[in-house]
UniProtKB/TrEMBL annotation:
Domain annotation GFO/IDH/MocA-like oxidoreductase: ranges: 166-297
Residues of the Gfo/Idh/MocA-like oxidoreductase N-terminal domain: 34-157
Listed InterPro entries: Gfo/Idh/MocA-like_OxRdtase_N (IPR000683), Gfo/Idh/MocA_oxidrdct_glycsds (IPR050463), GFO_IDH_MocA-like_dom (IPR055170), NAD(P)-bd_dom_sf (IPR036291)
Species: Mucilaginibacter terrae
Entries under SUPFAM superfamilies matching the protein: Glyceraldehyde-3-phosphate dehydrogenase-like, C-terminal domain (SSF55347), NAD(P)-binding Rossmann-fold domains (SSF51735)
Protein name: Dehydrogenase
Length: 398
Protein backbone atom coordinates (compact mmCIF):
# COMPACT_ATOMS: atom_id res chain seq x y z
CA UNK A 1 0.00 0.00 0.00
CA UNK A 2 1.38 3.40 -0.95
CA UNK A 3 2.11 5.75 1.94
CA UNK A 4 -0.36 8.47 0.89
CA UNK A 5 -3.16 5.92 0.51
CA UNK A 6 -2.34 4.44 3.89
CA UNK A 7 -2.43 7.85 5.54
CA UNK A 8 -5.75 8.69 3.91
CA UNK A 9 -7.34 5.43 4.98
CA UNK A 10 -6.05 5.30 8.54
CA UNK A 11 -5.08 8.85 9.50
CA UNK A 12 -8.19 10.23 11.15
CA UNK A 13 -11.17 8.75 12.88
CA UNK A 14 -13.90 11.33 12.45
CA UNK A 15 -14.17 13.75 15.32
CA UNK A 16 -12.17 11.81 17.86
CA UNK A 17 -8.97 10.24 19.07
CA UNK A 18 -7.61 7.08 17.50
CA UNK A 19 -8.03 4.52 20.21
CA UNK A 20 -5.96 1.62 21.42
CA UNK A 21 -6.35 -0.46 24.55
CA UNK A 22 -4.39 2.01 26.65
CA UNK A 23 -2.97 4.49 24.14
CA UNK A 24 -5.78 6.91 24.70
CA UNK A 25 -9.09 5.43 25.76
CA UNK A 26 -10.57 8.85 26.01
CA UNK A 27 -12.23 11.32 23.68
CA UNK A 28 -10.27 14.29 22.41
CA UNK A 29 -10.55 17.18 24.83
CA UNK A 30 -8.88 20.57 24.99
CA UNK A 31 -7.89 19.96 28.60
CA UNK A 32 -7.02 16.26 28.32
CA UNK A 33 -3.66 15.43 29.89
CA UNK A 34 -1.69 12.63 28.28
CA UNK A 35 0.28 10.48 30.71
CA UNK A 36 3.84 9.85 29.53
CA UNK A 37 6.31 7.09 30.34
CA UNK A 38 10.00 7.82 29.77
CA UNK A 39 12.10 4.84 28.67
CA UNK A 40 15.74 5.80 28.94
CA UNK A 41 16.69 8.38 31.56
CA UNK A 42 20.11 9.51 30.34
CA UNK A 43 20.89 13.06 29.24
CA UNK A 44 18.36 13.07 26.40
CA UNK A 45 15.60 11.40 28.36
CA UNK A 46 15.93 13.87 31.23
CA UNK A 47 16.13 16.73 28.75
CA UNK A 48 12.81 15.70 27.21
CA UNK A 49 11.31 15.45 30.69
CA UNK A 50 12.27 19.09 31.31
CA UNK A 51 10.57 20.16 28.09
CA UNK A 52 7.47 18.13 28.92
CA UNK A 53 7.23 20.09 32.19
CA UNK A 54 6.57 23.17 30.03
CA UNK A 55 3.23 21.62 28.97
CA UNK A 56 1.42 21.06 32.30
CA UNK A 57 -1.99 21.18 30.58
CA UNK A 58 -1.01 18.62 27.93
CA UNK A 59 1.43 16.08 29.37
CA UNK A 60 2.29 14.50 32.68
CA UNK A 61 5.23 12.17 33.25
CA UNK A 62 3.92 9.31 35.37
CA UNK A 63 6.52 6.58 34.89
CA UNK A 64 10.23 6.23 34.20
CA UNK A 65 12.38 3.28 33.14
CA UNK A 66 16.11 2.67 32.94
CA UNK A 67 18.39 -0.29 33.45
CA UNK A 68 20.68 1.81 35.66
CA UNK A 69 19.64 2.72 39.21
CA UNK A 70 21.68 5.93 39.05
CA UNK A 71 19.69 7.15 36.03
CA UNK A 72 16.38 6.42 37.75
CA UNK A 73 17.55 8.37 40.80
CA UNK A 74 18.59 11.32 38.60
CA UNK A 75 15.24 11.33 36.80
CA UNK A 76 13.26 11.05 40.04
CA UNK A 77 14.78 14.36 41.16
CA UNK A 78 12.82 16.04 38.38
CA UNK A 79 9.50 14.89 39.85
CA UNK A 80 8.89 18.11 41.82
CA UNK A 81 7.20 16.32 44.67
CA UNK A 82 5.33 13.75 42.59
CA UNK A 83 6.79 10.27 42.66
CA UNK A 84 7.07 8.52 39.32
CA UNK A 85 6.43 4.82 38.97
CA UNK A 86 9.87 3.32 38.42
CA UNK A 87 10.80 0.33 36.28
CA UNK A 88 14.03 -1.32 35.18
CA UNK A 89 12.33 -3.41 32.49
CA UNK A 90 10.58 -1.50 29.72
CA UNK A 91 7.94 -4.21 29.31
CA UNK A 92 6.78 -3.55 32.86
CA UNK A 93 6.33 0.12 32.10
CA UNK A 94 4.45 -0.72 28.90
CA UNK A 95 2.08 -2.87 30.95
CA UNK A 96 1.25 0.12 33.17
CA UNK A 97 -2.30 1.09 32.21
CA UNK A 98 -1.92 4.66 33.44
CA UNK A 99 0.61 5.31 30.63
CA UNK A 100 -0.92 6.59 27.38
CA UNK A 101 2.28 7.31 25.45
CA UNK A 102 6.00 6.66 25.78
CA UNK A 103 9.21 8.44 24.94
CA UNK A 104 12.07 6.15 23.91
CA UNK A 105 15.45 7.78 24.57
CA UNK A 106 17.65 4.71 24.98
CA UNK A 107 20.90 3.75 23.23
CA UNK A 108 20.30 3.41 19.50
CA UNK A 109 20.53 -0.39 19.37
CA UNK A 110 17.47 -0.62 21.65
CA UNK A 111 15.20 1.73 19.67
CA UNK A 112 13.67 -0.95 17.46
CA UNK A 113 12.97 -3.71 20.02
CA UNK A 114 11.40 -1.27 22.47
CA UNK A 115 9.38 0.45 19.72
CA UNK A 116 8.11 -2.95 18.65
CA UNK A 117 6.96 -3.71 22.19
CA UNK A 118 5.42 -0.25 22.58
CA UNK A 119 3.28 -0.62 19.47
CA UNK A 120 2.16 -4.07 20.53
CA UNK A 121 1.22 -2.58 23.91
CA UNK A 122 -0.96 0.03 22.14
CA UNK A 123 1.05 3.03 23.29
CA UNK A 124 1.56 6.20 21.29
CA UNK A 125 5.26 6.58 20.63
CA UNK A 126 7.79 9.42 20.54
CA UNK A 127 10.93 7.64 19.33
CA UNK A 128 14.20 9.52 19.52
CA UNK A 129 16.43 9.76 16.48
CA UNK A 130 17.94 7.94 14.76
CA UNK A 131 14.78 5.81 14.39
CA UNK A 132 16.52 2.43 14.09
CA UNK A 133 19.98 0.92 14.23
CA UNK A 134 20.02 -0.52 10.71
CA UNK A 135 18.19 -0.73 7.38
CA UNK A 136 16.21 -3.90 8.06
CA UNK A 137 14.89 -2.60 11.36
CA UNK A 138 13.72 0.59 9.61
CA UNK A 139 11.82 -1.38 6.97
CA UNK A 140 10.36 -3.71 9.59
CA UNK A 141 9.19 -0.85 11.82
CA UNK A 142 7.32 0.70 8.89
CA UNK A 143 5.48 -2.59 8.37
CA UNK A 144 4.73 -2.85 12.09
CA UNK A 145 3.37 0.71 12.24
CA UNK A 146 1.05 -0.06 9.32
CA UNK A 147 -0.23 -3.05 11.28
CA UNK A 148 -0.94 -0.77 14.28
CA UNK A 149 -2.63 2.26 12.69
CA UNK A 150 -4.21 3.36 15.98
CA UNK A 151 -0.87 4.45 17.41
CA UNK A 152 0.85 7.73 16.58
CA UNK A 153 4.56 7.18 15.88
CA UNK A 154 6.65 10.35 15.90
CA UNK A 155 10.43 10.37 15.39
CA UNK A 156 12.68 12.89 17.12
CA UNK A 157 13.99 14.85 14.14
CA UNK A 158 12.68 18.08 15.60
CA UNK A 159 13.84 20.46 12.82
CA UNK A 160 10.70 19.42 10.95
CA UNK A 161 8.72 21.39 13.55
CA UNK A 162 10.82 24.54 13.85
CA UNK A 163 9.26 27.71 12.35
CA UNK A 164 12.75 28.64 11.14
CA UNK A 165 13.33 25.43 9.24
CA UNK A 166 9.77 25.50 7.90
CA UNK A 167 10.54 28.95 6.48
CA UNK A 168 13.75 27.74 4.87
CA UNK A 169 11.90 24.83 3.30
CA UNK A 170 9.41 27.34 1.88
CA UNK A 171 12.22 29.54 0.54
CA UNK A 172 13.74 26.56 -1.25
CA UNK A 173 10.40 25.55 -2.75
CA UNK A 174 9.69 29.10 -3.98
CA UNK A 175 13.09 29.41 -5.64
CA UNK A 176 14.60 32.20 -3.54
CA UNK A 177 17.93 30.40 -3.47
CA UNK A 178 17.87 29.59 -7.18
CA UNK A 179 19.45 26.34 -8.33
CA UNK A 180 20.97 24.72 -5.25
CA UNK A 181 24.08 22.67 -5.88
CA UNK A 182 25.85 22.47 -2.51
CA UNK A 183 24.97 21.85 1.12
CA UNK A 184 27.68 22.32 3.76
CA UNK A 185 27.06 21.06 7.29
CA UNK A 186 29.19 20.69 10.38
CA UNK A 187 28.56 19.83 14.00
CA UNK A 188 31.86 20.11 15.86
CA UNK A 189 33.00 20.02 19.45
CA UNK A 190 36.31 20.06 21.27
CA UNK A 191 35.63 17.32 23.82
CA UNK A 192 35.98 13.57 24.05
CA UNK A 193 32.23 12.90 24.35
CA UNK A 194 32.94 10.65 27.31
CA UNK A 195 30.76 10.42 30.43
CA UNK A 196 32.17 9.65 33.85
CA UNK A 197 31.77 6.02 34.93
CA UNK A 198 31.29 5.26 38.65
CA UNK A 199 32.11 1.59 38.07
CA UNK A 200 34.28 0.20 35.22
CA UNK A 201 31.69 -2.51 34.60
CA UNK A 202 29.29 0.24 33.41
CA UNK A 203 31.64 1.62 30.76
CA UNK A 204 29.78 0.30 27.72
CA UNK A 205 26.34 1.10 29.15
CA UNK A 206 27.20 4.71 29.96
CA UNK A 207 29.54 5.45 27.06
CA UNK A 208 27.53 3.44 24.55
CA UNK A 209 27.98 6.12 21.85
CA UNK A 210 31.61 5.06 21.51
CA UNK A 211 30.91 1.40 20.71
CA UNK A 212 29.68 0.04 17.40
CA UNK A 213 27.47 -2.57 19.06
CA UNK A 214 25.17 0.17 20.37
CA UNK A 215 25.83 3.32 18.38
CA UNK A 216 25.89 4.92 14.94
CA UNK A 217 28.51 7.39 16.15
CA UNK A 218 28.69 11.01 15.07
CA UNK A 219 26.65 10.41 11.93
CA UNK A 220 23.67 9.09 13.90
CA UNK A 221 23.93 11.29 16.98
CA UNK A 222 24.60 14.64 15.30
CA UNK A 223 24.63 14.72 11.50
CA UNK A 224 21.37 12.80 11.16
CA UNK A 225 19.46 16.01 11.97
CA UNK A 226 20.89 17.87 8.99
CA UNK A 227 20.63 14.85 6.70
CA UNK A 228 16.97 14.53 7.68
CA UNK A 229 16.27 18.18 6.93
CA UNK A 230 17.68 17.90 3.42
CA UNK A 231 15.54 14.80 2.84
CA UNK A 232 12.50 16.82 3.97
CA UNK A 233 13.24 20.14 2.29
CA UNK A 234 13.84 18.57 -1.12
CA UNK A 235 11.55 15.53 -0.74
CA UNK A 236 14.51 13.36 -1.67
CA UNK A 237 17.19 10.96 -0.49
CA UNK A 238 20.85 10.57 -1.47
CA UNK A 239 21.73 8.33 -4.40
CA UNK A 240 25.40 7.81 -3.45
CA UNK A 241 27.23 7.74 -0.12
CA UNK A 242 30.97 8.41 0.28
CA UNK A 243 32.80 8.97 3.54
CA UNK A 244 36.11 9.00 5.36
CA UNK A 245 37.22 9.40 8.96
CA UNK A 246 38.98 7.81 11.86
CA UNK A 247 39.79 7.79 15.54
CA UNK A 248 42.10 10.73 15.08
CA UNK A 249 41.89 12.68 18.33
CA UNK A 250 41.09 10.47 21.33
CA UNK A 251 42.98 7.17 21.48
CA UNK A 252 40.99 5.89 24.43
CA UNK A 253 39.60 2.54 23.31
CA UNK A 254 36.53 3.88 21.51
CA UNK A 255 35.30 2.17 18.34
CA UNK A 256 33.19 4.84 16.67
CA UNK A 257 35.15 7.52 14.82
CA UNK A 258 35.76 10.92 16.44
CA UNK A 259 36.46 12.66 13.12
CA UNK A 260 34.19 12.06 10.11
CA UNK A 261 33.34 13.56 6.74
CA UNK A 262 30.40 12.27 4.70
CA UNK A 263 29.70 13.30 1.10
CA UNK A 264 26.25 12.53 -0.26
CA UNK A 265 25.30 12.81 -3.92
CA UNK A 266 21.67 13.70 -4.62
CA UNK A 267 21.37 12.59 -8.22
CA UNK A 268 17.86 13.79 -8.93
CA UNK A 269 18.68 17.27 -7.60
CA UNK A 270 22.19 17.46 -9.14
CA UNK A 271 23.35 18.41 -5.66
CA UNK A 272 26.20 17.50 -3.29
CA UNK A 273 25.82 17.40 0.48
CA UNK A 274 28.87 17.68 2.75
CA UNK A 275 28.32 16.58 6.36
CA UNK A 276 31.20 16.64 8.83
CA UNK A 277 31.86 16.38 12.55
CA UNK A 278 34.92 16.31 14.76
CA UNK A 279 35.57 16.01 18.47
CA UNK A 280 38.82 17.95 18.06
CA UNK A 281 37.76 21.54 17.35
CA UNK A 282 34.78 23.69 18.29
CA UNK A 283 35.35 26.84 16.21
CA UNK A 284 32.49 26.26 13.78
CA UNK A 285 30.29 24.39 16.26
CA UNK A 286 27.00 24.00 14.41
CA UNK A 287 27.12 25.10 10.79
CA UNK A 288 24.46 24.57 8.12
CA UNK A 289 24.70 26.30 4.74
CA UNK A 290 22.50 25.74 1.70
CA UNK A 291 23.98 27.34 -1.43
CA UNK A 292 22.15 28.32 -4.60
CA UNK A 293 22.67 30.48 -7.66
CA UNK A 294 20.59 33.30 -6.13
CA UNK A 295 21.68 33.10 -2.53
CA UNK A 296 22.80 31.19 0.55
CA UNK A 297 20.97 30.29 3.73
CA UNK A 298 23.18 30.02 6.82
CA UNK A 299 21.52 28.36 9.80
CA UNK A 300 22.01 27.80 13.48
CA UNK A 301 19.52 25.63 15.34
CA UNK A 302 17.39 28.64 16.32
CA UNK A 303 18.18 31.44 13.86
CA UNK A 304 19.29 31.96 10.29
CA UNK A 305 20.42 34.52 7.73
CA UNK A 306 19.80 34.75 3.99
CA UNK A 307 22.72 36.07 1.91
CA UNK A 308 21.89 36.94 -1.70
CA UNK A 309 24.39 36.51 -4.47
CA UNK A 310 25.81 39.84 -5.64
CA UNK A 311 23.56 40.12 -8.68
CA UNK A 312 20.48 39.31 -6.60
CA UNK A 313 21.44 41.80 -3.89
CA UNK A 314 21.28 44.63 -6.39
CA UNK A 315 17.57 43.98 -6.91
CA UNK A 316 14.64 44.78 -4.64
CA UNK A 317 13.04 41.71 -3.06
CA UNK A 318 9.38 41.99 -2.17
CA UNK A 319 7.83 39.78 0.51
CA UNK A 320 10.62 37.28 0.00
CA UNK A 321 11.90 36.33 3.41
CA UNK A 322 10.61 38.24 6.42
CA UNK A 323 7.22 39.31 5.15
CA UNK A 324 8.29 42.97 4.95
CA UNK A 325 7.46 45.00 1.85
CA UNK A 326 11.15 45.70 1.24
CA UNK A 327 14.16 44.00 2.78
CA UNK A 328 17.03 46.09 4.11
CA UNK A 329 20.35 44.30 3.94
CA UNK A 330 22.66 44.46 6.92
CA UNK A 331 26.35 45.38 6.63
CA UNK A 332 27.26 41.73 6.02
CA UNK A 333 24.93 41.58 3.06
CA UNK A 334 22.36 39.35 4.73
CA UNK A 335 19.06 39.51 6.51
CA UNK A 336 17.56 37.47 9.32
CA UNK A 337 15.11 34.84 8.15
CA UNK A 338 12.93 35.28 11.25
CA UNK A 339 12.82 38.37 13.50
CA UNK A 340 13.94 36.50 16.62
CA UNK A 341 15.38 33.13 17.64
CA UNK A 342 13.01 30.18 17.87
CA UNK A 343 12.41 27.92 20.86
CA UNK A 344 14.21 24.61 21.28
CA UNK A 345 13.05 22.28 18.51
CA UNK A 346 11.89 19.66 21.01
CA UNK A 347 9.30 22.14 22.32
CA UNK A 348 7.67 22.39 18.90
CA UNK A 349 7.94 18.64 18.34
CA UNK A 350 6.22 17.73 21.62
CA UNK A 351 3.52 20.32 21.04
CA UNK A 352 2.77 18.66 17.72
CA UNK A 353 2.92 15.19 19.29
CA UNK A 354 0.02 16.20 21.54
CA UNK A 355 -1.97 17.52 18.60
CA UNK A 356 -1.36 14.42 16.49
CA UNK A 357 -2.48 12.11 19.29
CA UNK A 358 -5.67 14.12 19.36
CA UNK A 359 -6.27 14.19 15.61
CA UNK A 360 -4.72 10.88 14.55
CA UNK A 361 -2.91 12.61 11.69
CA UNK A 362 0.55 11.59 10.56
CA UNK A 363 3.34 13.66 12.22
CA UNK A 364 5.75 15.55 9.97
CA UNK A 365 8.53 13.40 11.40
CA UNK A 366 6.96 9.97 11.18
CA UNK A 367 7.81 6.32 10.70
CA UNK A 368 8.25 6.76 6.93
CA UNK A 369 10.50 9.80 7.07
CA UNK A 370 12.29 8.35 10.09
CA UNK A 371 12.98 5.17 8.14
CA UNK A 372 14.43 7.13 5.22
CA UNK A 373 16.86 9.01 7.46
CA UNK A 374 17.77 5.91 9.48
CA UNK A 375 18.63 4.15 6.21
CA UNK A 376 20.72 7.15 5.15
CA UNK A 377 22.65 7.03 8.42
CA UNK A 378 23.28 3.29 8.11
CA UNK A 379 24.48 3.61 4.50
CA UNK A 380 26.70 6.56 5.38
CA UNK A 381 28.29 4.52 8.18
CA UNK A 382 28.70 1.61 5.80
CA UNK A 383 30.64 3.89 3.47
CA UNK A 384 32.58 5.34 6.41
CA UNK A 385 33.70 2.16 8.11
CA UNK A 386 34.08 -0.03 5.01
CA UNK A 387 35.77 2.63 2.87
CA UNK A 388 33.42 2.08 -0.06
CA UNK A 389 30.93 3.95 -2.20
CA UNK A 390 27.41 2.85 -1.28
CA UNK A 391 24.32 3.39 -3.41
CA UNK A 392 20.63 3.68 -2.58
CA UNK A 393 18.50 0.69 -3.58
CA UNK A 394 14.88 0.77 -4.72
CA UNK A 395 13.95 -1.64 -1.97
CA UNK A 396 14.68 1.13 0.57
CA UNK A 397 11.78 3.25 -0.69
CA UNK A 398 8.90 3.13 1.80
Amino acid sequence: MKRRIFVKNTGIIAGGLMLGNTAGAFAKSADRIINIGIIGCGDRGKGIMRVIDQFPQKFKVVAICDVLDMRLAEAQKLAKGNNYSQYKNHKQLLADEQVHAVVIATPLNMHYPIALDALKADKHLYLEKTMTFNVQQALDLVKLAKAHPNQVVQVGHQYRYSPLYYKVKEMIAKGYLGKISQVDCRWDRNANWRRSVPDPSLERQINWRMYKEYSGGLVAELLSHQIDFINWAFDTHPSEFMATGGIDVFKDGRETFDNVQVVLRYGEQNMVGNFGATCGNSRDGYLFKIKGTKGTVSLLTDQGVFYPEKAAAEKTLVDGVTGATKITWNKDGGTSILPEPTKDGTWYALSDFYEKIGSGQLPDSNVYTGAKTAICVHLANQALYNNEIVRWKNEYNV
